[in-house]
Amino acid sequence: MDFATLDLARFEAATGAERAGEAARLDAICRNSGFLILRGHGVPQNVTRGVWQAAQTFFAQRVDAKQAVAAPYPGYPYGYLGPDKEALAKSKGEDTPPDLKESFNGGPLRVPDGVTDPDAHAFCYQSTLWPDLPGFRPAWEAYYAEMEALAARIMAAFAEALGLDRGFFAPFIGNPISALRALHYPATQGAALDRQQRAGAHTDYGSLTILQPQAGSRGLQVMSDGNWVDVPAEAGAFVINIGDLMARWTADRWVSTLHRVVALPDQPARQSLAFFHQPDWEAEITPLDGSDTYPPVRSGPYLMEKFRSAGS
C-alpha cells in the first residue's frame, strides 16, 4: 500500500482545475483508506518541539509523580492514564489483555457560554489535571490551539472534497469538544501476551484525528484488504485519519479504517501525540446526502456513548 499524501498549503493555494483535481484526489483517499500523510501544514516547529519535550519530561517522571494527576475515578476523561488501564480492541468487541501504553489527556481550552447540558460539563468540559512541571501547561495549550486551527483547515478541505462550500462545516465546529492525548509506549521486553498490542485494533470516534508519531518509529498499522500495513512516520508531517462520525456524516462515502499499534518483541520506547477532533457538543450530525442511512445524532452525547460502550 502506497500511502497517500496531501500538501495542505499547496491545496489552499491552488485554483481552477488544479484545485478541483486536488479536491477529487482527497475525496478518493477518504473513500479508499481514510488515512493520509499531511505535509505543508504550517504548524510552527517550536510549538511542536515544545509539547514533545513537555510530554517526554512528564513520562520520564517517577510513577508517584504521574499518579498525582491520574483520573480521580473511572470514566474521568482527562489527566494521566497509567499502564494496564485500557484495551482499545474492546470498542470493537474483542477481549484482549490491556494495551501496553500510558497516556496524558487534556480537553478543550475554554468552556463556551450557553452550554446548559449537564452531561457536557460532566464529560468533555471537566478540568484537565495539570502536572506540576514548569512550562508543561503553556506548551500543551499552544499545541492544542494549533491543532484546533489545523483541524478547521482540514475540515474546509474536506468540504471541498465532498463538493460542498468551503465553509460548510464551520457552523458545526465553532466550539469543538476535541481532546489531545500524549502517548508513551514503554520498551517491550520479549514477546507480548497473546493478542496484546501497544494499542489494540480500533477505529477513532470523531470527525478526524491528527497524529504526530515519533519520526522514524514503527508500529502504527492500518487494515487494508485484510492485511495490516505499516504507516510511515515521516519527520515534520502528520498522519490524518477519518473517524466514525465523519463516516456517518458522509453516509459511509468515506471510511473510518481499523488501525492499531502493534507490539513486537524487544521494541524501543515510542511516543506520539493524537488530537481527536470532534464537532461542537450540540452539533446535529445528519447524513450529507439526505438519506436515512443513519438517524441524526448530537455530537457530544454520541461521543459520550461511544466512550461508555467501550468501557473507557
Strand and helix map with partners:
Blueprint: E1 5-7, H1 8-13, H2 16-32, E2 35-39, H3 45-59, H4 63-67, E3 79-81, E4 102-106, H5 118-122, H6 136-161, E5 179-185, E6 199-202, E7 208-213, E8 220-224, E9 227-230, E10 238-242, H7 244-249, E11 259-261, E12 270-277, E13 284-285, E14 297-298, H8 299-310
Parallel strand pairs: 1-2
Antiparallel strand pairs: 2-10, 3-4, 4-5, 5-12, 6-11, 7-10, 7-12, 8-9, 8-11, 13-14
Look at the structure and give the mean pLDDT.
Answer: 92
The CATH topology, please?
Jelly Rolls
Order of helices and strands: EHHEHHEEHHEEEEEEHEEEEH
Strand content is 15-25%
**N-to-C CA distance:** 32 Å
Which CATH first-tier class would you pick?
Mainly Beta
Molecular structure report:
By secondary structure, the protein is an alpha+beta fold. The protein has a single domain (5-310), classed as B-lactam Antibiotic, Isopenicillin N Synthase, Chain (Jelly Rolls, Sandwich), CATH 2.60.120.330. 29% of the residues lie in helices and 20% in strands. It is built from 8 helices and 14 strands. The chain has an 8-stranded mixed beta sheet with strand order 1-2-10-7-12-5-4-3. The protein starts with a strand and ends with a helix.
